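[Q] Does anyone have a clean structure-token version of this?
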Amino acid sequence: GCDTMLCANLPDGVMVRHIVGAMPPGARGDREVSHDIGERALYMAATLETVDLSACTALRRVGWAAFRGCPALRRIVFPPSLEVIGEKVLSDSSSLVTLDLSVCKSLRRIDRGAMNSCPVLKLVKFPPSLEEI
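[A] Here you go.
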């Protein structure tokens, strides 16, 4: 495994503790980058502790259960461009204590069960743009 990974595509089977997302080198404009994180992208990633997607300026949507069941996940940062957090995205993340979504100035919707079964989650900050939970 590895400790920290800076990548656009995470290879199958990689055990990683930290992910830092960024615009791919040489990418120009929205057509060359992904606008979403797919369903179950990091589902049950047992060693994942932190995710920083703040530099992923084209990210609009996080898909169903993308980070579900990540028991070591303590911190996740989404970019201001994020519009939708899908169903069960962070559910069953037993180490997540706080979640600051206030920086997500474009966030309009958080789908059902996005933060279900997060037993130590004490504080979630929402942006004023949020229309639907």
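[Q] Thanks! Anything notable?
[A] Confidence is low (pLDDT under 50) at residues 1-8.
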